[in-house]
Backbone:
């Protein structure tokens, strides 16, 4: 705003709202902040209680093993097998019913002492090769496995030849 | 005389050939276009329709109690001698409900040709029996599988699923999901006709009175 000072006109920055808050008003603001803070704390504690209750309700079954080796095999297998219902998750993460059933079956097979390869072979026999995350390297899948490397070499070769041609032209 | 300024076209800067219709210019575009077509086609495929490993294999050997007569047992040997539609269903499955009228129709019109047997997957007797009373019972035998163990031998990963079993006890087709008219006419009926022409003695199958 423009202020007159003697014969001069000055332009003065208009006062901001925050400038006008007085000391007495800051105590009111502090009280509001305090109440908001208390409310948020209550919310967080309620959420914590609820989540702990829900976690207890959906407690996952425990898979005890006799040896550490078996436990490691089991956990490794679960990460390599696909849940067929939620097809982007593995058996370790999926919460589908079928995944729970398959986990139980794999657990029993590992406890009986079957090897990883044997368990995978049996599951592929029943459900098909899609249950494995890593498709087997066979005649039908060699394109899948080698194509990225082939494309990399091809692209690299094209890039190198183009760069060389540019360099020759520039020099 | 002013020096003739030779204009270099963009093509000639890259490739030492005069024509812009050189294939090397269009090759990257063609490659990408080809890739788009291939990947676009892959997008139309449904990853939930997994091809079954049981096709042309003998049906898994199993034994299970009948749902309606729990003291009696059903054995997979009973598949032999006639064409069977082995139908995995549950009362909690909404798609099964929608598919049921078609199944009742098949049971009614084809009762001298094939037999429909049901596998009640992860269900309870006190829920299935009212469901069957409400929607109808097309099944000759219903095998109870409350834990899903029998279904796991068949590679079942959802309901409903239907297996077509030939008179020798081999699985000939698998339908994943509800049977609609299109699937019936395109996938099941031709196979059934084929099986009938191979063994004409099958038509006129008289179903026995002991339905379970």
Residues:
């Amino acid at each position: 705003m423009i202020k007159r000072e003697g014969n001069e006109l000055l332009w003065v920055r208009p006062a901001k709202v925050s400038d006008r808050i007085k000391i007495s008003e800051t105590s009111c603001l502090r009280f509001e902040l305090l109440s908001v803070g208390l409310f948020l704390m209550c919310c967080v504690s309620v959420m914590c209680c609820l989540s702990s209750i829900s976690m207890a309700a959906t407690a996952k079954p425990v898979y005890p093993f006799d040896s550490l080796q078996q436990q490691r095999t089991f956990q490794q297998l679960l990460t390599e097998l696909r849940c067929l219902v939620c097809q982007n998750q593995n058996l370790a993460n999926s919460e589908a019913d079928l995944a729970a059933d398959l986990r139980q079956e794999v657990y029993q097979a590992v406890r009986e002492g079957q090897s990883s390869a044997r368990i995978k072979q049996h599951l592929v026999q029943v459900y098909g090769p899609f249950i494995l995350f890593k498709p087997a390297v066979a005649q039908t899948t060699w394109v899948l496995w080698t194509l990225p490397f082939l494309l990399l070499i091809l692209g690299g070769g094209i890039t190198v030849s183009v760069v060389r041609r540019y360099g020759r032209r520039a020099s | 005389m002013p020096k003739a300024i030779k204009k270099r076209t963009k093509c000639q800067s890259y490739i030492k050939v005069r024509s812009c219709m050189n294939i090397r210019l269009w090759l990257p575009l063609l490659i990408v276009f080809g890739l788009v077509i291939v990947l676009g086609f892959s997008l139309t495929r449904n990853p939930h329709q997994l091809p079954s490993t049981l096709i042309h294999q003998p049906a898994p050997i199993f034994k299970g109690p009948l749902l309606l007569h729990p003291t009696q047992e059903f054995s997979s040997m009973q598949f032999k001698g006639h064409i069977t539609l082995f139908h995995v269903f549950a009362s909690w499955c909404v798609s099964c409900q929608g598919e049921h009228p078609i199944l009742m129709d098949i049971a009614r019109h084809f009762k001298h040709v094939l037999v429909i047997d049901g596998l009640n997957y992860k269900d309870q007797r006190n829920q299935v029996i009212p469901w069957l009373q409400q929607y109808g019972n097309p099944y000759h035998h219903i095998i109870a599988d409350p834990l899903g163990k029998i279904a796991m031998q068949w590679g079942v990963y959802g309901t409903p699923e239907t297996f077509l079993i030939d008179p020798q006890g081999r699985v000939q087709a698998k339908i994943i999901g509800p049977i609609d008219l299109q699937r019936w006419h395109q996938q099941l009926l031709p196979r059934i006709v084929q099986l009938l022409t191979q063994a004409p003695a099958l038509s006129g199958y008289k179903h026995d009175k002991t339905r379970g």
